[in-house]
Write a structure and sequence with these properties.
The protein is mainly beta. It has a domain of about 170 residues. Helix content is about 10%, strand content about 45%.
Length: about 475
Amino acid sequence: MRKTILYLFAAAAIIMVFAFNKTDSTHNKAIYIATNGNDQNDGTISKPFRTLKKAASKAKAGTTVYIKEGIYKEKLIVKYSGTKSKPITFKAYNQGKVVLTGEDVKNVEGDTSLVNIENKNYITISGLIIQDLTTNLTNETVIGMYVTGSSSHITLENNIVRKIETHAEDGNAHGIAIYGTGPMKDIHIKNNTIEDLKLGWSESLVLNGNIDGFHVENNVVRRNDNIGIDLIGHEGISNDPKADYVRNGIVKNNEVYEISSYGNPAYGEEYNAGGIYVDGGKSITIKKNTVYNSDIGIEATSEHAKQYADNIQITENIVYNNHYTGISIGGYDEDRGGTINSSITKNIIYRNDTKGLAGGQLQLQHDIKNNVIARNILTAGLSRIFIANYFTTNQDNVLTRNVFHKEKGKTGLWVWKEDELTSFQKFKHASTSDSQSRYLDPMFENETNYDFSLKKESPAINIIE
């Protein structure tokens, strides 16, 4: 009797091991693609498929698609969703150079993208180079990577997106576009490079519509002719007007540079492009980014009247050598919305307004209220303007413990509610900036090399910490 029981236990154990291995195998299914493959193959490493289309048709929950090195002249359209325990991943095999090129894609009206994820969940795209998609049509928007519908739990990582271009005078293009027409959440865009784009009226990396929860981290965005990173609301993208805004996310540790609309046919000779721009987004943290040689370093407002950038935390960023201004909040005219309940804290804002456009280091525009500006260090540029406030609609804002860089033989200029003030004391009185704000030399470690750490004897340390 005991022997029979032992045999039964042993048989049950074998069945359980077999079942576990079968489940594990399903969860870790791998598909391979190669330029010398064949879609009649079985998609194994030794007999890979040839096309992304074939692999996508087979990539169901729990699949990793490994794309071997080479040039693929086709689109990647994701066909199925993964699940939390069985995501779907498309990635470069062994970190090889995998290029998806749009050089043979013909102009057609509507949205054209090289990577498309629509109404899909738990998808990762990793390690691809997406490039060379262009249009001459005004009514075509070309996009490197496009996520839309109600897609959630999406990760775009370690990709390079470049040379996505519109050549139409009133055209549109995006490097990476996330459009929440339905509800989206858990969007991760990290460690990508987005470069050398011709965007028309549009943006390099944009999140727009009903997106609740996101991370945009450790990306390089550079050499593009319109906005770098954009977080948008109230443009009619979402099917639910009450949820038509990007919210509850973080933009962190990105390097953004050479973002300028100057020479873009849609803008002509205007310096309007923000490196990082919140346009109607809410509850967003912009932290530890470096933005330089762009038109506007960081901007938070809403372009739509009676709408606001709300609860935006702009903190610990380094913003320098930008053409128009360093950090800007509020609407650019009285027909726009504004900025409320937000903060600008612990930023280095250094020698912006390089084109002498009177934007200064910190620009305070129309309809700003209940904002805190604290513990920043501002160094004036050639215009000598620290704060540019050419509107009288600011109210209930707090300025405290800021350091304005005093330089030997140079004067400073503060513009407050249209009044130009050449005295720091007069500025403090007019703005009710607190007594702990200072006009002094912060003693940077090596500003020539853009090392803005403070020397240990710096008098600014106790003010900003």
